Amino acid sequence: MGIPQKSTRTKTRRRLRDLDQISADLRSPKHLAQHKSLKAPEDLPGLGQYYCVECAKWFESEHSQITHLKGSTHKRRVKALKDEPYTQKEAEAAIGLRTDNGPRQAAKDNTQNMEVEMEDSGLLEEAT
Question: Collapsing DSSP states into helix, strand and coil, what is residue 58?
Fold first, then answer.
């Protein structure tokens, strides 16, 4: 058995919320309150008083939160949140799954028209 990688543990420990979850927080205060209520205030830095909604991050003091708000990581996150999050339909279209049944439906109608034309011409009756 190998020794677990420290980098893997720290990456998963630092995992923040995804952009679609944060945009839901910004749109709905109920969603944000539900997320904040999952953790006890005693366990959070600064007893849960200082929270950056855009980055989904807790801070120890007001000073550290203010310096974070001036920083480039926060500004990058705010810029990313200005774009509308991707929908499930867009994600499926990106990998090639489509819900558009247009061409298949047109081909089906075309075959039905061919059968009607063949019946009208009498070709189907002669073959039987």
Answer: strand
- The tens place of each residue's pLDDT in the chain, 128 residues long, gives 566 666 666 666 667 778 888 888 888 888 888 888 888 878 788 787 888 888 888 888 999 999 999 999 999 989 988 888 778 888 888 888 766 555 555 556 666 666 666 666 665 555 55
- Determine the longest span between alpha carbons in the chain, in angstroms: 91
- CB neighbours of residue 118 within 10 Å: 13
Q: What is the CA radius of gyration of the chain?
A: 28
- pTM of structure: 0.55
Please check whether residue 22 is in contact with residue 54, taking contact to mean a CB–CB distance below 8 angstroms: yes
Alpha helices in the chain (DSSP H): 6-13, 19-27, 29-36, 62-70, 72-82, 88-94, 102-121, 123-127
